[in-house]
Amino acid sequence: MLFLELFLQGLVQGSIYALIAIGLTLVYGLLRVLHVAHAGLFTLGGYLGVLVTNASGSLALAMLVAIAVVGSLGMAIYRLCYQPLLEKPPFVALIASIGLFIAMEELYRLIFGPYGMSYVQPPLQDVIVFAGLSLKLAELTTMAIALAAVVGLALLAGRTRLGLAWRASVTVPQMAASFGIDIVRIRYLNFFIASGLAAVAGVMVALLNNLVEPTMGSVPSYKALAIIVLGGLGNVRGTLLAALALGVIESYGTIYLGQLLDRDAIAFAFLIAVLMVRPQGLFGKR
Amino acid sequence: MLGLDAYHLSLITAVGISVGVALSLNLITGFCGQISLGHAAFYGTGAYCAALLTKAGVPFALGLASGALLAAVLGVVVGLASLRVRHDFLAITTMGVGFLFIGVVRQQDVLGGELGVSAIPDPGLGKAGFALLCVGFAAAVSAFSVYVKRSWMGFVFDAVASDEDTARVLGIDVPRYKLAAFALGTALAGLGGGLYAHNVKFIAPDSFGFVESITILAMVVIGGIGSVGGVVLAAVVLSLLPQWFQFIDDYKLLLYGGLLFAVMRFSPGGLAGATRAVLARMRGA
Questions:
Q1: Which of B99, B219, B252 to probe the A interface (max A CBs under 10 A)?
Q2: Backbone dihedral region of B3: left (phi > 0), alpha (psi from -120 to 50 degrees) or beta?
Q3: How high is the pLDDT of residue A71?
Q4: Is the pLDDT of residue A86 over 90?
Q5: How large is the ipTM?
Q6: For chain B, how big is the Rg over CA atoms in Å?
Q7: A33, A210, A269, B217: most buried, per Cβ within 10 A?
Q8: Total of domains in chain B
Q9: Is B181 a domain residue?
């Protein structure tokens, strides 16, 4: 039973990773930028979730506010930070992004205080028992949201004109532009969706731990980078699989490898091992 | 030394170590173009190795040298990774090495675990002597950097940094030079780590985390990637800034982050690049 419980917990954690990492991989796919500051947006989502829920009592409203605010901020980051740097060597945008992320974390600490915040009455805390396995409603919701996000993205990309334009901009930007696709609009949309997903992840993590703190983005941010590299940079399906796999591996690893490595290092041990064998990532193509 | 009090001597010591370590990363990232987001791991390896050895009774100099050697061995291993993966992949891999280092050290009781290593013996040089040693370290690394930059090796590093594939076509043994850059840079970082450990007499995993890696990288980037003078200047200023402005300490990371972002956004060549641009404009006018 422990084996299954661990697996389930791994999937919950993996769903969180997926929600964060899919946004990152969308940005990478379109711009070839490693968007470290993404995790700063995730943290902001968490804060907005707690603040709005505590003020209004509605988690749904908090979710919408978080998506709208964080999504818009994501578009602003694209406009102010990445767009002017696209022609520069890739490390320039990467380091700028790390700087932005550090500054964001510090701003949260200065504005919201170093000790973190909690939900006054955390919603979705009921426990569901099924076949001897118990799961909090919040955990179930997290998995459902991750699934819905992936399916929604697949439908958007595969079934709509907008999705077609999006895929065209990812694969052959110049060609897409010459066919009259407004690449800049696609990029804004891309950042809105990516950042919105990070905001949702932030709200859910805040709910799962019932805590938001300024540094809650640090570990996920670097781990999400490892995940998108494992997933083959820019590959949404690969990212989802890598995120779930990492969640499960960590879940077991904490029990069985705890003596050797701490939890957060497992992801990177896995990453380095994979990259040495397959430099293009688990699911990447050369 | 020069009639300075203990406070100023400790500042000089810290600045000397920072300059040396920043230049050690500059060898890898600046000269050879191999981005590293995990330099603190090598700095930390040197610190832990030297500290544990001198605690076991090994002479100070031998401890330092062993720390440098062990860091270089680790550096070559990571360098081997740089032969497999490039650019963004390399950035993430080196970042992973940094987290792996912390993750492993934390769980090993032999290495002090969470609590770190304390009561590291004094090298017995006195405060002034130790400060002088660290300044000497910084000066030696600076001189070495200038020497490398002007040598054939520096020329090849430059070629590898600007276009690796062309360098390969021209018959340059790219892997060998990449490994050389990693070995040299990480050995010097390890040396700096050993000095740091014997300066503060207490080390813990958190001293060598991602923030430390980024702090070192910030010195290189803000100074101007590849420029020896720029990096020295940035390392001096960035390590003194929080001391001069005690009130800034709470905002130190905000300042680092903001500076890093602003420099990349407005002057990707750092201080050195900005100076060059200004000079060029003055000459043009």
A1: B99
A2: left
A3: 95
A4: no
A5: 0.80
A6: 19
A7: B217
A8: 1
A9: yes
